[in-house]
Amino acid sequence: MQVQFFYHHSLYPIKEKLIILFYYTVHGMVIVARGVIKKTAIILFIFSFLLMHFSIPVKSSLVVLPGKLTITMPEGFPKEAITYYIYATNPYTYGVNASAIIENPPVTSLPEGYTSIPDISWVNVKPEKIYIPPNSTGKFEIIIDIPENQKPLQYNKNWEVWATISDDGNGGDLEGGGAIFKVELTVRLLIHTPSSDKSITVQPSYVLIILIVAILVTFIIIFYSKKSRKN
Fold first, then answer.
1. pLDDT score recorded for residue 221
2. Is 71:84 a contact under the CB 8 Å cutoff?
3. Residue 204: enclosing H or E segment and its boundaries?
4. Residue 113, by phi and psi: left (phi above 0), alpha (psi -120 to 50) or beta?
5. What is the C-alpha to C-alpha distance for residues 158 and 194, in angstroms, rounded to an integer?
6. Nearest partner of 104 among 91, 128, 121, judged by Cα
7. pTM of the full predicted structure?
């Protein structure tokens, strides 16, 4: 014996109709979600398989130290240029060509209290390009030289300058194929100029010493001249 159930909209009140409609809607959503999950799982499995078997080895060539240089100038500005060094190490078994450039950072990257240097030519790097053999370290010389006519205008300044070090991206062949990416590394140069002109602050002290010595000499001369008259 087979029992059949027939649904007729007139046999159910509105509340039961809404419940039935909600049930079939949720049921349909679950079926669709299961299909999406299955497809996503299959795609992730295929992607993981390809990644494990066909991954691309990537290498960068340089290790640069220090990552930041804080340069505080002596009072009164030095007469000669200031020199610092940045070291680039090649840790691999192939040689690399490294280059360095000096540039002002974007205004949005400047820390609070710092500005860009007025003239980027005041900071230089020598040499601009070097060859670093395998497992060796090369160095770049950072030279800061402010013109004499600009020094009186540049007291109590805080500048940030970037020294960007990069390799040529040519690291030879990698085992099993792969790719070498050109990497740029930035060294932050934080430059603090003198807070005051030492020559101006020291000059009054010399005048005071000369004045005191002159007074003492005058007193001694007067004292001995009076003493000689009495004799």
1. 74
2. yes
3. helix 198-230
4. left
5. 10
6. 121
7. 0.58
